[in-house]
Prior knowledge:
The protein folds into 3 domains: 81-276, no CATH class; 283-378 and 385-403, Beta-Lactamase; 542-776, 4-Layer Sandwich (Phosphatase 2c, domain 1). 48% of the residues lie in helices and 20% in strands. The strands form 6 sheets. Strands 1, 2, 3, 4, 5, 6, 7, 8 and 9 form a 9-stranded antiparallel sheet that branches. Strands 11-10-18-15-14 form a 5-stranded antiparallel sheet. Strand 12 (316-321) and strand 13 form a beta hairpin. It is flat, with a radius of gyration of 57 Å.
Amino acid sequence: MFKRIAHYFTGSFQHKLVLFNVLLVSLTTIFLVIFLMSNMRGITDFSLEQNRQSLRKTVEEYLTIYTAEKATSTWLQIQSAQSNLTILGRTAQKTLDNYNAINENTAVYQIPIFQTELEAEGDALTTAADTPFDAFIPPPFVENPASKELVNISALLNLNMDAVFAANENHTLIYFVGNEETPITRAYPNVHLVEVLGEAVSLHFWNDFFPGNTDAWRKWYTNPAISEELPNPITVEAPYGDAAGQGIVMTMFYPLWDNNQNEFAGAIGLDLSLDKIIEDVLSIRVAETGFAFLINSNGEVIAMPEEGFALMGIEQQEIQRGGLTFTSGLIDETGKTAVQDFAQTLQGNSEGIYEIQLTEQAAQPGNAHLISFASLPPLSNNQYEEDVWKLGVVVPEAEILQIVKSTETAITNSSNQASYVSLLLVAVFLLMAIVISVNFSARVTRNLRTLAIAADKVSEKNYDIELDIQSQDEIGQLGNAFEHMTTEIQDYTANLEAKVSRRTAALQTANDEIMHLNEQLKDENLRLSAELDIARQLQMMVLPPESEMATIPDLDIAGFMEPADEVGGDYYDVLQIGESVYLSIGDVTGHGLSSGVVMLMAQTAFLTLSHSGEQDIDRILSVLNQVLYHNILRIRENKNMTLAVIKYQDQRFNLVGQHESVIICRANGDIEEIDTIDLGFPIGLEDNIDDFIFSKQFELAPNDVILLYTDGVTEAENHEQDQYGLEKLIDTLTKYHQLNAKEMVSHIMDDVYAFIDGSQIHDDISMMVIKQRPNGHLN
């Protein structure tokens, strides 16, 4: 089936054209549809995501402000109680400070409001239950005269205790308690403490109910650092269940100080009912199931609905502290890791928004909860440590993003509907395109079919063809050209043999000329090869032999040269003339025989001048330049060379001439580099270079090494056309500087050959190593 379909479309140009048009239109349309639908979906998703982020940001801002407002509202209720306690505490402290003056005027105690009538009840002394104020002396302190005296003095607080109590509807009890020696109590309103305490009537107020508080208060009054940091001495106890049936209560104390005796004198206490605060927290509802909670610095939950305890996995428990019973839940003791992590965040931050997974479903968008929390101003616990309460609001993310989901569903449905309509229109359009393509291809290919029939006749050597093509377009032009071509083929066929004979003769003549040129090229190649061989032999012949270099007593010298494939003009020489040793190294520009001839001129001139008795190497270099300059003019070559000459005598070296830098490796491995650019001028470039010649003196200690080289060493290239370089040359010299000169040359060249890895050598490679012998002895 597939073969039949393939044959149908490959057997006719018309069918191919139909297939091409259909595929072109179909693929283009499908691509555009996919592209547009993808873009539309992308734009939709982007818009929804922006909407979701915007709504989330708005919700987070709302929750932050809402939580801060609720935290402020909660704090105002606590602050009001603290302000009222401060008023009464300062009044009591002022009374205590003026105790002697008041005690001298006993008439004040005759005023009815300041009179206290005690009666025995059990082993305690107390006021009657129907009196406005409640005074109470525990049994262990009934026989202490100071207790009754303190009861009488504390009656002065009756003047404003009731007014302070009435200032806040959350007050449950305001009272004064003496010091450890006389812990009597005066309270308002009268709850008849002797009856409320029951079996605990004989317990010590401070030691049994609030142990450790008095020590902390003493530190506040005696340690200026604490009082400066916390100007208000009020301390707050953790919430607990009140024994008098007042619900959840938080006790605040304002400690008093006897400045005359410099001792703790008691405290004003205020029991604040947290029921209203807790009720306000529990009444906070956000969205459908969002709730609020109140927690202190220790992670103890003060207020939280039952569903909050269950959701966050917090277990409620009773805590016994002294003679009081506390009911609480610790957030950091939950069994949920996510809540434990949140507890750490809560401890370390004063406010914020926290995303948490509280349900058992996998972490997916919409399953998380958002917790907004804000801090109340810090309270001081009974050890003057900061107790920062925090109010939090917990809201399911799914509820606050419900509007986004509704919008997303509506937009998605609308988008899908538009996609279906678009696909239907595309299908109709494709059907129309196929019909038009078939009709169009039939008209277009009619003339092509006529040409195809004519071509078949031509293949059968029938050149008598008349085409009936009416088209004036390119196909019509092709038909006219085809008719003209068949006519020419007829004429060409008739004259083909004569043309072939003439063309064959012309090709034979051209071939003879090519063979003659080939012979000439062979002769030229032989001549050039001979020149290169001569130049290479000349170059190697003038090098100093090892036997001559080995006779120099002070110096261990080794040299190396390898000519390039196209011979260059590298040169080095070692001459011992009397007590002096002359070392030279140079490089002629260019390649070939002419460069070798210039090198030979330089070697001959240097040898002649050094043996002539001339001792000044500056003069030797100057005369050598003049000789080469005039000889180069004679041979009409554009050549010059770099040349460095070193004269050695009495363990001192004198360097002249411009060449590559001279490398000195000291016996300890330190490297010195002498730049020769300012010591001379290219030889043979100018007639007189005296103004450019300068010298450089240096010495070698035993085992110090000099390295002379040409640019063929540093510019040797590997297959990646990376050059060997001066830095690598110095590293290799340093590595092997303790060997003798010949071994150093061998190792350096091994490293160069390993680097180029068989690459073609484009320039001569030459170097000379000179090492100062120890004590001037031959090896």
